[in-house]
Amino acid sequence: MDHHRTKQVGLALQGGGAHGAFTWGVLDRLLEDERIEVAAISGTSAGAMNAVVLADGLVAGGRDAAREALRRFWSRVSNAAGNAALRPDAMAAFLGGWSIDGSPLRCYLDWISRSLSPNLFNPLDLNPLRDIVAAEVDFGRVRACDKVRLFVSATNVRTGQLKEFRQAELSPDVVMASACLPMVFRTVEIGGEAYWDGGYLGNPSLLTLVAESAAHDIVLVQINPTWHEALPTTPQHILDRLDEIIFNSSLLKDLRALALIQQLVRQEGEPRGPGRLPLYAQIAQLRMHRIDAETRLEALGVDSKTNTSWPFLTRLHRIGHQAAQDWLDANFGHLGRRSTLALKPFLG
Questions:
Q1: pLDDT for the residue 271
Q2: End-to-end distance of the chain based on CA atoms, in angstroms?
Q3: I want to staple 255 with a disulfide (CB 3.0 to 4.6 A). Which of 35, 264, 334, 346 is the partner?
Q4: Are 248 and 203 in contact (CB under 8 A)?
């Protein structure tokens, strides 16, 4: 087995607030490994931010520049903690290491977030994240990037359908649309259409990535835990678990769809003739993989997604870096040969 040949992969990057620093660690390790070539990325919310920062860095100066760009981006996110938006829960997202979980202030902020729309509480639409993304990423370079194809997901508010923004459409507004939690930030309008967070319908979106990527190996970087052993009993833990289920639901549906199509192709063969779907051919050759840290991220709780303190972000980076290292040690030799994430269990 040749372990030194470069292997192409597509990356599917989930969103999850500050937990996106775990994905930063994964990407950092993959960029270190010159045997891995990233051909395409589908990203949502924090995953979209990681994707555009990585692509811009690759164009600007290759792997090392991409690694430095990711580190600089997350450092700026942490430094912005003292310059929060006007909205209280957005402010809480930039409080750094101060945990308000279970406190009266947390209850008050939660009540405020459910009682007032961002249009009322943040009429100037202040958003530190948008400023950071616009300052750190040269979107002209990203749109012209020929090193990696990018897909960013958002939810069309009026139609309730998933919108996949292609590379030529990417801008700071597109990335912020992908990350727009409607109870925190004002709705993002692009081309006359209104968008919310892509995580509601594609977290991340897999089908377009599979259909349009040159790579047949897709690596899912998952930061929202799928499995919990303990049943939630307190109101806060119930809400936390609901949040995880909601933001994993679209991913599980995509994995189920891929499993069903693969099963159909195995049983019936690929459609032939002028009307055959390229998606069938891509899925027939698809090899799925996953990098996650469920046991380590599960214990952190949903509230930690708003913790942008530098010690916490670098801790997540280390966890992600090690998770990618463990995955490479166990699975690099399987790239180009077979899946290491079985799709059959997603059939239920």
A1: 63
A2: 34
A3: 346
A4: yes
